[in-house]
Amino acid sequence: MSKKQFKAESKRLLEMMINSIYTQREIFLRELISNASDAIDKLYYKALTDEQLVFNKEDYYVKVVADKANRTLTITDTGIGMSKEELENNLGVIAKSGSFAFKNENELKDGHNIIGQFGVGFYSAFMVADVVTVTTKAFGSDEAFKWESTGADGYTVEPAEKASPGTEIVLNIKENTEDDQYDEYLEEYRLKSIIKKYSDFIRYPIKMDVKGQRPKADSENEFEEYQEEQTVNSMVPIWRKNKNELTQEDYDQFYFEKRYGFDKPIKHLHISADGAVVYNAILYIPENTPFDYYTKEYEKGLELYSNGVLIMDKCSDLLPDYFSFVKGMVDSEDLSLNISREMLQHDRQLKLIAKNINSKIKSALLGILKDDREKYETFYKGFGRQLKFGVYNDYGMNKEVLQDLLLFHSSKEKKLVTLDEYVSRMSEDQKYIYYASGESIERIERLPQTEMVSDKGYEILYFTDDIDEFAIKVVAKYKDKEFKSVSSGDLGIEADEKDKETAEEQEQHKELFEQMKEILQDKVKAVKASKRLKSHPVCLSTEGEVTIEMEKILKAMPNSQDVKADKVLEINVNHEIFAALKDAHGNDQAKLSLYTSLLYNQALLIEGLPIQDPVSFTNDICKVMV
Question: Considering only CA atoms, which of 363, 359, 483 is closest in space to residue 430?
Fold first, then answer.
């Protein structure tokens, strides 16, 4: 018996494949079980065309046996087996795929699909084994053969004895090292967990001899160990069942079993797509935010399966960041079982699936918003911030997708409203969608800047989240209506007689306002008579893109630049304080300076901005009191 060498390219592939395609050693068991399932499938297809062969599904299975004493792990199947030539072709050339060739040569029907690529997956066994021995007997043949290899050094093939068709793979598990514990692949609980994780939905039983304890027949207090053969996989995945067969409890149970969350999801989507791309998916929109959702530690993604076999725990490419709260899984026969994260990023099929899923999620959210407002508002409380960040992120590329999902508190409705609902209530003379920003609804309601807009009967959206104004700046327009802050210099409201009076006051007292500007220096861009104030003496407005609320948020960020809004100090010329200002301007410059500083600091406090010199401010108050 002579040792045969792998082809040169195969030898180089072996080390590269193990080190790059597979990032976790446990994957080897998934690969070998997938190959075993393919072998049984091949026999099933043979039965479809061979009347002499009766395929009784109960007779076909995969068996996994661990032998701690001899450090071996055996995977046996009752499939079609391999001839000597097939052994040479499938295992002598890495990345040569008997399963893939079979899939291409046969029109697969009846919901069955060959899973893997035998050559690639098989060699993952060398991640955990020093020696791999394959004993196989092809269906319809009297001969059996044994293939054995220690890895890149080559392999041997010789005749063997095997009673029935099928394949038996024996792995001689490596000894432990300081860094790696290979013993785990001989432990019953570990093998069961790997099978449940990756191969739970293989369509044939995966059997193991499982140990247990039971009371002795003649004693209540004494127990004895026993061993029995159990099927450790569930075989039929929920996503391949007919939706009509499933209840809400079935979907909820799957959510809990997969540990997608500890809450009860507010909606599930069961997708069976059969078009340009074929896939099944079950997606969940959760009710509550995970504790780490708004942290760097949170990892988005859906479970990704290829023909019922898990190939990735969290495939982030299936979800955009703004829908990162969605949980669930996707199964597609169009994806290769042996695919790396890098390859997935460029996979055309995966991009089509992701695009389709994105559309389905948006439709589902719009459906909840329309049909169950209370449920949507519960969802929005936890995840609305993420939707708003999605609008702002990527230079507004996704604003069209997300803007109809946004909610803001309304000054008129006293509840959350959509942008569409706001626009539908706008009067004909209203030019803009008005908004006001602040730390809370209660604080915004007391802002002096809201007076004029409210008096006109216009609805105001309240922005209480730090991302709100940034997101709306990106949206810019909704149904051809621009957004306008109530603190903006120009509110776009038609002038009335009071406005004309204000303009006259501005011109008449031009020197007063210029002198107040000199007192405040670069703290404000200008001081002027206010059109918007009714009962309040003073307020700050802004010119330019950066508002006062945006300035506060940007300054609070770590390593932030010194970004400032262009502030304008507005004085209510109809307030009694204005008379005091005029008097001080004509008679007492020190008092004018005192009043100007007090009014400016008062305006800062109204906005929730810090006073630069609190001691000076309190001293100024004392001067007024004496």
Answer: 483
